[in-house]
Amino acid sequence: MKTTLFRTTLIAAAAAVLSTAAFAQAGGKLKVGLMLPYTGTFAALGNAIENGFKLYLAEQGGKIAGREVEFIKVDDESDPSKATDNVNKLVKRDNVDVLVGTVHSGVAMAMAKVAKESGTLLIVPNAGADAVTGAMCAPNIFRSSFSNWQPGYAMGEVMAKKGIKRVATITWKYAAGDESVRGFKEAFEKGGGTVVKELNLPFPNVEFQALLTDIAATKPDAVFTFFAGGGAVKFVKDYAAAGLKKTIPLYGSGFLTDGTLEAQGADAEGLFTALHYADSLDTPKDKSFRLAYAKAYKLQPDVYAVQGYDAAQILGIGLKAVNGDVSKKAEFARAVEAAKIDSPRGAFSLSKAHNPVQDIYLRQVNGKENKLVGIASKSLTDPARGCKM
Ligand code: PHB
Predict the structure, then answer these.
(1) Is the domain of 154 the same as that of 269?
(2) What gap in Å lies between CA 275 and CA 179, rounded to an integer?
(3) At 186, which CATH number?
(4) Predicted pLDDT of residue 27
(5) Comparing C-alpha atoms, which of 54, 24, 37, 50 is closest to residue 316?
(6) How large a percentage of the chain has pLDDT more than 70?
(7) C-beta 103 within 6 A of ligand 1
(8) Who has greater pLDDT, 20 or 139?
(9) Does ligand 1 come within 6 angstroms of the Cβ of 35?
């Protein structure tokens, strides 16, 4: 009797120690590795993502699934050559619970490789690299943004339906540019159009002059482009200054005019773009998000702010399902896969490959806004080519 009691007490004590350890792990600060560009052509995008992420956190009283959050920030400079070292520092030295990043597709692919190998949770709040939810897809990798294919494909459909026949494309020579153009071409040529010229320059160069001269000589019906951030500002201004805006209509994936309109001014007026967000959606969720964002940061939100906010929402949904215990990866994934994410862009869910299934809007620049024109492509799902999951 005595020994049984003693043994039971011992077992209970051991269980208490174990659950205290588990609680300490689950209940301590959640380490979030924020790997974003804070310098260079995408600096404003990185800041907007961080703002959006922190806005959601503030709405949750500063905690996610009961855990306070500690941020460990790295400026990735949108430089793929530094990406593996940067992400390894966060995973191996700082032991982060979750990686959130980044903007640049090449840097994001390095992050996805490390996440896949180490099993660390990764939420991508912008970079569209098709491979992240394609050939590199993994149960612990999620994206709150888009695939490069998505806005490109939607714009290809729109332009083909408008009856445009001959298009020249111009972009940076790296995954995001290549894949946006590929998505565009797939839909545009399916709809009867032809891409007559594909122009490129290295990322993040902005010496557009020779390429603009080539466009003028080629005389296509229209131009399709992918540029973003500081490069998009300069491209839109140079396109207008070269006198092309009046003669050869410019179309793009919506990054061309998102977060950039203050700086582009009248040179962006009237441009049509396709993206999973617009400035005049007029839904209750979007209105409250925009008000809260403007109040917190004295800035208007853009697509990047929305993606940062939704990255935090995805983390919140997954972590709540596992009571803050990031080691429960399968349960985390199941909860996120089943969720409808209440985004300012409109509610969306994730595909099997963990990329948003979402409406792509057609927008037109009107003053300082990307005004909603209509839906370019309803519930567009990335084909997730090469994903085995
Ligand atoms: C990308 O590199 O994937 C990228 C960068 C900036 C954007 C969109 C995509 O605005």
Answers:
(1) yes
(2) 15
(3) 3.40.50.2300
(4) 62
(5) 54
(6) 93
(7) yes
(8) 139
(9) no
